[in-house]
UniProtKB/TrEMBL annotation:
Residues 49-104 form a coiled coil. Residues 275-393 form the NlpC/P60 domain. It comes from the Bacteria. InterPro entries: NLP_P60_dom (IPR000064), Papain-like_cys_pep_sf (IPR038765), PG_Endopeptidase_C40 (IPR051794). Residues 1-39 form the signal peptide. Residues 169-190 have a biased composition (Polar residues). Residues 245-272 have a biased composition (Low complexity). This is C40 family peptidase. Keywords: Coiled coil, Hydrolase, Protease, Signal, Thiol protease. Residues 160-190, 225-272 are annotated as: Disordered. It holds the Pfam family NLPC_P60. It comes from Streptomyces shaanxiensis.
Length: 393
């Protein structure tokens, strides 16, 4: 600071001329400033490793959200296509029936015309494409036999039904087109997010990748610690439940033939049934460990998160919806403390990830692109990421 500078000796500077030392220093400063101005941006402008990690995680989550949208659009498209095919088949069938009804009317009209049993306007009525205007003419209806009247009624019924089905088919085709557009949009979104994530990771140096791996390892260790804590709490709660159940059984043992025993028996049977199904679902999920995560996949060689949970419970004889948004409503919501093996654990506010609980704070899930089906702590992305727990069967 100025207060610490030494006083310059008199006569060290002549107007317009510097001393050699000062001149050298000035030239050096100018050169450095010039180099700084022309240099590429400083490495300080690059995002920090933590920022890169957060960005990549966000992109993977966004990709998973888009994947669920893709799954929903794909399922909707398949259903809509099936409906359109059914409607088109129905329209074809009804058109054939309409043509047959028209032919029958034509036969009647031709016969009447040949025999003179009806005036020429009868033939005009019966052979017209839209004979509704003639239909209400009383004098014409009086000329018709009962069989002819039945044929006309059948014709109008078939015509009306066919027109209605054609309209339904047209509307369904429009909906199918919208579903296909949604499908393509969701697919493009997934691909874009994954591409952005890969690009960010590709720019990391070897040292940064090592540091990122270390950060991930610390997160896993913390997640494992929290899982162990949950396991301890659940074990204590289960022990207390068993003590209370034993006490209740002892109290009711003298009156086992009276009230209370039936309700307890029904509850035990229900718990046993769920446990049996859950064991089958978990056995299937364990057999998929090591298979790659692929967005939109439902097996048998690869899975996305909801594809895995759907397949696991299907192996247990229980059908649950395809996407997380629907799976979260396909059962009974329970607290995390009461989670049991087989329950589905949902993540994030937008419910875009799911795993199947195996007990002790652990789950089996298909994590994200580039990863494989594996066992992992339910706290893998922090406690706040857990949305809910659902018992599907």
């Amino acid at each position: 600071m100025a207060s610490h500078r030494k006083s310059r000796p008199a006569g060290t500077r002549v107007a317009g001329i510097r001393t050699p030392a000062l001149a050298t220093a000035a030239l050096t400063s100018v050169a450095l400033l010039s180099q700084t101005a022309n240099a590429s941006p400083s490495s300080d402008d690059r995002p920090s490793l933590e920022e890169v990690e957060k960005k990549v995680d966000d992109l993977y989550r966004q990709a998973e959200s888009a994947t669920e949208n893709y799954n929903a659009a794909k399922e909707k498209t398949a259903k809509q296509r099936k409906r359109v095919d059914t409607l088109l088949d129905d329209v074809a069938k009804r058109t054939q029936e309409l043509n047959e009804a028209r032919e029958e009317l034509g036969t009647f009209a031709a016969a009447q015309y040949r025999t003179g049993a009806a005036a020429p306007d009868t033939a005009t009525f019966l052979l017209a494409d839209t004979p509704q205007d003639y239909f209400d003419q009383t004098q014409l209806m009086d000329r018709m036999t009962g069989r002819q009247k039945e044929a006309v009624d059948d014709y109008f019924t078939q015509q009306s039904a066919t027109m209605k089905k054609r309209q339904e088919a047209t509307q369904s085709l429009e909906t199918l087109t919208e579903s296909q557009n949604d499908l393509q949009t969701a697919k493009s979104t997934v691909q874009t997010k994954l591409s952005d994530a890969r690009e960010l990771l590709s720019k990391l140096t070897a040292e940064e990748k090592a540091r990122l791996a270390a950060i991930e390892k610390r997160k896993q260790e913390e997640a494992a610690r929290k899982a162990a804590e949950l396991a301890r709490q659940q074990a204590e709660a289960e022990a207390e439940r068993q003590r209370q159940e034993a006490a209740q059984q002892q109290e009711s043992s003298e009156s086992a033939s009276d009230s209370g025993s039936s309700e307890s028996s029904d509850s035990s049977a229900s718990d046993s049934s769920y446990a049996t199904k859950a064991e089958k679902a978990l056995a299937f999920a364990r057999s998929q460990i090591g298979k790659p995560y692929v967005w939109g996949a439902t097996g048998p060689d690869s899975y996305d998160c909801s594809g895995l949970t759907q397949a696991a419970w299907k192996a247990a004889g229980v059908d649950i919806p395809r996407v997380t948004y629907d799976q979260v409503n396909a059962g009974t919501t329970v607290s995390l403390a009461n989670a049991r093996p087989g329950d589905l654990i949902f993540f994030y506010d937008d419910v875009t990830h799911v795993g199947i609980y195996i007990g002790n704070g652990m789950m089996i899930h298909a994590p994200k692109p580039g990863a494989y089906v594996r066992e992992e702590s339910i706290y893998y992305d922090g406690e706040s990421s857990i949305h809910s727990v659902v018992r599907p069967a």
